[in-house]
Amino acid sequence: MDLVNPQKNIEQKMQRSIEVLSEALKKIRTGRAHTGLLDHVQVEYYGARVPISQAANLTLMDARTIGVMPWDKKIMPVIEKAIRESDLGLNPSAQGDFLRVPMPPLTEERRRDLVKVVKHEGEIAKIAVRALRRDANEQLKKWLKDKEISEDSERRAQEEVQKLTNAFIARIEALVHEKEKEILTV
């Protein structure tokens, strides 16, 4: 942490927690199709494991269907198998040169389960932000003990870190609430 401006450093780390949460929430499907849903699915392509987006062109065919057009037609069965075996519960079907990946409608029970997953991801992000706050406060106390900063500076810096923490917790809660609403919308 930077002695001159510890808030800037902690803010960047907290922002990274928000980005990780956003990526995790993108993977949770809502019944509507979006190509980001397949980002974490990996396939064997010329001896290397790569995301599907690096082995095929992903497009939205309609609101509930993703189209996957492999660049090399020989890997189409590999891509189909990878999507089928992923934790997304999708069942792709080959149609000529491309795969159709329909999004099955979500049941009410499945929606509730997904909301629980979203809340859990939000809690993980909050824990990460609070851990960053704790680390920053410990560093400030160490600097105070080593007489690198004054008591007033330490107290002001702790207040700033707390304000940052509160702001980021509010952003996390807003992201979680938005995703909950998206999932529960039929």
From TrEMBL:
One of its GO terms (biological process) is cytoplasmic translational termination. GO terms for molecular function: ribosomal large subunit binding. The keyword Protein biosynthesis applies. Residues 22-184 form the Ribosome recycling factor domain. GO terms for cellular component: cytosol. Transmembrane segments: none annotated. InterPro entries: Ribosome_recyc_fac (IPR002661), Ribosome_recyc_fac_dom (IPR023584), RRF_sf (IPR036191). Keywords: Cytoplasm, Protein biosynthesis. It is found in: Cytoplasm. Coiled coil: none annotated. It holds the Pfam family RRF. Belongs to the RRF family. Responsible for the release of ribosomes from messenger RNA at the termination of protein biosynthesis. May increase the efficiency of translation by recycling ribosomes from one round of translation to another. This is Ribosome-recycling factor. It comes from Candidatus Glomeribacter gigasporarum BEG34. The gene is frr.
